[in-house]
Amino acid sequence: MNRRAAHPWQQRADVVLLLIVAVLLWQGIYRVAGASALSSPLETAATLLGLLRSPIFLVHLRATGSALALSFALTIVLGLPLGLALGLRRFAGEVFEPILASLYTIPKVTLYPVVLALFGLGLGAKVAFGVMHGIIPVVLITLNAVRAIPPVHIKTARVLRLTPWQVATAILLPAILPELCTSLRVGFSLTLLGVLVGEMFASQRGLGFLLIKGITTFDVSTSIAITVLIIAFGAASGALLLALDRRLHRRISHPA
């Protein structure tokens, strides 16, 4: 009982200790590199607070949030059904899995001219970059999760003449739910990366745009502040999704 109660506190203490070490290391690097290369933790915090109070910055923040939400929704809506279909059709999965894996190794920035020509400079290009980064991992994780289902379950469903909807809700989803959560976690992180890349190269709004603008104008404090904000958001959302992922895996491994 005591060990279980102390466990969350130990985790929080580890996180706080890690943050303290990171800030001290950051301060040490700042003293060595100087203000021309890096802003101090205190200066970065002050800059970030100033940005969060700026109405213009909030417009850019909402632009990134809107693009991320739309990109992630499209990634899930397109990626999960495709992964399910390829997983159920074993031959098709074996054919397309190496193709998709090879496509994902292509640097997405090289497709910038094509994306810009198709979607223009704005939301469409950002969403396209987000989906391009996130959809293939979602498809591959879902595909392999379906493959891991014992074939006897699918055969039994066919013998019982279950409808596709019944097969999906009664067999597929319960069996692959933990892996689906993993695919959502990975897909979210990569979609966020894609949206930021799209904003850096194909947009005039968003955190990625402000980041590349700060870099090109040598505004070190703004660039570092935005980077810290992105890292904090990515770490927080990743931690929440990881906690959900672990809970689902524990529930499947140790049912009540």
Key features?
mainly alpha, MetI-like fold, 256 residues, 10 helices, disordered N terminus, 0% strand
Descriptive overview:
This protein has helices at residues 2-33, 41-52, 55-88, 90-104, 112-119, 123-147, 151-159, 164-202, 207-216, 220-253. By secondary structure, the protein is mainly alpha-helical. The protein has one domain (41-253): MetI-like fold. Helix 2 (41-52) crosses helix 10 (220-253) and helix 9 (207-216) runs antiparallel to helix 10. The protein starts with a helix and ends with a helix. Mean pLDDT is 84; it is low at 1-6.
How are the secondary structure elements laid out?
Layout: H1 2-33, H2 41-52, H3 55-88, H4 90-104, H5 112-119, H6 123-147, H7 151-159, H8 164-202, H9 207-216, H10 220-253
Short summary:
The chain is mainly alpha-helical.
Q: Output the radius of gyration.
A: 22 Å
- The CATH superfamily is identified as MetI-like
Which of globular, elongated, flat, extended, rod-shaped describes the shape? globular
Overall average residue pLDDT? 84
Main CATH class: Mainly Alpha
Q: Please, what is the oligomeric state?
A: single chain
List the helices and strands in order.
HHHHHHHHHH
Strand content: under 5%
How far apart the termini lie comes to 18 Å
Q: What name is given to the CATH topology?
A: MetI-like fold
Q: How many DSSP H or I helices? A: 10
Low-pLDDT runs: 1-6
